[in-house]
Each structure stands twice: as C-alpha cells, then as structure tokens.
Amino acid sequence: MSTTNPPQPSPTSQTKKPPVHSATARELMQKIEAKTATIAIVGLGYVGLPLVQAIRDGGFPVIGFDVDQKKIDALNSGKRYILHLGDDFFSNLKADKQFTPTSNAKDLAKADLIVLCVPTPLGQHHEPDLTYVFESTKTAAASLRKGQLVVLESTTYPGTTRDEMKPILDKSGLKCGEEYFLAYSPEREDPGSAGRSAQHIPKLVGGVDDVSTDLAMAFYTRVVKAAHRVSTAEIAESAKLLENIYRAVNIALVNEMKVVLTDMNIDVWEVIAAASTKPFGFQAFYPGPGLGGHCIPIDPYYLTWKAKEVGRNTKFIELAGEVNTSMPHYVIERTQHALNEHSKSIKGSKVLVLGIAYKKNIDDPRESPSAEIIELLRDRGADVSYHDPHLAKFPAMRKYRVDLSSVALTAATLSASDCVLILTDHDAVDYSLIGQHAKIVVDTRNAMANVPANRVKCEVIKS
After folding, report:
1. Which is it for strands 99-102 and 39-42: parallel, antiparallel or unpaired?
2. Bridge-based pairing state of the strands 180-184 and 203-207
3. Burial class, 100, CB count within 10 angstroms (exposed 0-12 / middle 13-18 / buried 19+)
C-alpha cells in the first residue's frame, strides 16, 4: 500500500471565491454568449486579418479598423493584399455583410470588444518600440464606453497590458474590472502553414483581473478551437516570449552546428535527419541564412530589455541573438569562397538571390535576412538581382531600401549568373531548372536536396 498522501488543495484554492461580476460585466457576458457582441479588430495585417475570419466563422459581427486607407480600399474592392490568404478570402470578406472595414476611429465606439493586433518592433538599439500599442490604446480610449473589453494580442514584455495600457484607458474615468475590461491573448499566427488557420491554433488568455479573464475566455472559446486560461496577463505575455525565445535559441544552436560541421565536411542536414529518428528528447530545428519574420528576430529582445529593470542579464538569450544575427555574414563568406573556387571575385560577379520572403510560400518580407545579404553583396561590388514568385518588387523596409524587382527565372537568367544564392525555398520554384543551368548554387535551405542527381549539372554548395 502506498504511504503517499494525496495532494491537498492549497489554501488559495480553498478560500478563493469566484469573481463578482458587475451588472455591466453580466450584460457583456450575455452578448458574448448570444454572439450579438460586435468585435473590432485594430490592425488588419498578418495577424488581424486572419483573426477577422475566425471571428466571422464564430458568428460575431466584426468591424475591421486600420489607419492605412489602402487596406480599407482593398477590402472594400475584394482585392488581395496578403498572398497566403488567397483571393477567395478577400472576395468572401467583401461580400460579408457582417464585416465592416473602416479607417474611422469613431467606429470603435460601436464595438463591445476591441482587439489590438498592431506591430511591436525594436528601436535602433534593440529596445522595445511600443509606439503602435500606445497609439492604438489611445485610439480605443478616445471612444471607450461602459461595457467594452479591450484585448491586446501583440507580442510584448511582461507588464505591458497592466502597466502601460491600463493607465491610458483609466483616463477615460471608467473603472477597470467593473465598467470596462482588459486582457491579453498573444497571437500565434503561422502564415503559409496548412491546417494552422487562426481558429485552429489554441489561444492563451489572461486578464488584469478575474472578471476580464472570464469575459475574454467566453469570447475566445467561441472563435478558436481551444482557449487556455492563465492567472494573469503577465503570465500570458511571458508565455508568448518563451515560445519565441525557445525557437530563437534552438535555431541559434543549429546555426552554430552548421558552421562547425561545415568546416569538418559534415552535412548538417543529414545530421539533423539522423538525430530526428530519436522519438523523445529531440525536436528538429533547421539552419538558415538568418532570422526573419516579425517574431523570432525581435521578441527575445523584449525580455532582455525588461530583465534589466530587475537587475538581471539574459546572457543565454543574447548569445543566441549574436549567433543568429551573424548568419548573413557567414552566407557572404560562403558565397565568396564558392566564387573564389571558380577563380571569380565577388566584386563584379552576377549573383541571383532566390527568395526574399522570410519563409517559404508567403509574401512577407518582414525582417528577412535577404535584405541584409543583398546589401552586403552590393557593398562588396556584386551585381545583384533576385527572383521571388511571391514578391514582384522588393518592398521598403525599416532598415533597408532595396530598389529591385523580381526577374524571371529562366535558363537564360540562370546561365547569365555567376552564382545562385538560395535564401528562401519556395515550393513554386523549379529547382531542376536551377540544377540544369546555374553555374554555382549556394544553398542555405537544402532546397536542392530533392533534385535528382542527373538533373544537377552545376556545383551545389550547402551553406
């Protein structure tokens, strides 16, 4: 017989009483349960727009607000501006009478829930830039009324919802937890990945008080497959950072392995495949030319900055950042070495960059390492062009201005290039064509691995 005593309820769980909902909270709860609550999404980009569809599929009327009038015009005309969502997505939204796109901030007063899906970039010195969060919160506060729930979905440091947003909203004179409500539920978008639409990805929900959490949970459980309640907004904010830091650190590990193993003439891709046969204790991460997207290159620094407030250094996270940010320079080194082996200098060589989106099969170039790599190539005198089936023109970025348009991927284009540098492994690319007509391929994504040997007539350098 076991002598272990069964776990006893903690004093907190024994004495904690359910929150007392005000009449205002009860009224909002009834609207959510009846799906008569109007939801406003602030920010109609890569996070906000898929959430609009999830909410509409859940049966709620939606107001879509964005300060960019071009997006509103596109939605009103059914014109696609995010590739991976597809044409039908935009045409269906245009025909949906329960969706109202607007650039008029006064329309937010009509909403019962206001969900903020705005960017959280970094400043010049890797400090958090909450300009968009502050401005969108002020916009919500300008028309805040009794019975509204405000939810932040943007990735940020712990304490943002309570310590930064709440004081702005409190200036309305309304009392949080009784007259208006505030919660945090981090976005978990995975653009371009099949089966991972917004409604199928589980959500975390944490409010600044229990009543706010109750209301936010009632909403999200009606629009996504699963919602998980956490005790505070700070827990949800920290969990989002942990998710992305976990990926950044493991990508840094495999990037460092790639550099070391390459010098040993060992194929890191085969090593990863071999390690992946272990059914426990290992998760495959893959090397690349650097980090891209709005999350992984940015979010870890939100925690490193916040940690300094409590006198702590995040050495492990910062080291991972150093490894990942060094990868574009490593790619240049490998490209230069490949050209040298063919008696070519990088200066004056024609380099065709394949892919400028930060990941395959999407049209999102945010924080893409391709921009830095192209700039480094040009600094060394290379004649650079690019091909990307999803981005016809290199868009303006915060740090880089690359005045280039995508060239056609043809036998002539490939033959005229001294080196093809694969930075994004889009499925729409004919890699056999590259193998037939390129002179040198520097492959940072292992994209050429599935091309039959008899279709490869050039030198392929895994980088």
Report:
1. unpaired
2. antiparallel
3. middle
Collapsing DSSP states into helix, strand and coil, what is residue 214? helix
What order do you get walking across the sheet with 419-422 strand by strand?
383-387, 350-354, 419-422, 440-443, 459-462
Residues contacting 420, CB < 8 A, separation 6+: 351, 352, 354, 414, 434, 438, 440, 441, 442
Whether residue 454 has pLDDT greater than 70: yes
**453 or 5, which is more confident?**
453
- pTM metric for this prediction: 0.90
Question: CA 218 to CA 151: how far, in whole Å?
Answer: 13
For residues 34 and 302, give the distance between their C-alpha atoms in angstroms, rounded to a whole number.
38
Residues 177, 180, 184, 190, Cα dihedral to 10° = 150
Please check the confidence at residue 86 and state whether its pLDDT lies above 90.
Answer: no
Residues designated catalytic: 295
Q: Which two tokens stand for residue 109?
A: 């007063």
pLDDT tens digits along 103-159: 999 999 999 999 999 999 988 888 999 999 999 999 999 999 999 999 999 999 999
Using pLDDT thresholds of 50, 70 and 90, give the confidence band for residue 17: low
Domains of the chain with CATH codes: 19-231 (3.40.50.720), 328-462 (3.40.50.720)
Q: What gap in Å lies between CA 333 and CA 444, rounded to an integer? A: 12
Q: Of 61, 65, 49, 204, give the one whose Cα is nearest residue 140.
A: 65
Cα–Cα dist 162/241, whole Å: 17
Q: Of 248, 198, 267, 194, give the one whose Cα is nearest residue 427.
A: 194
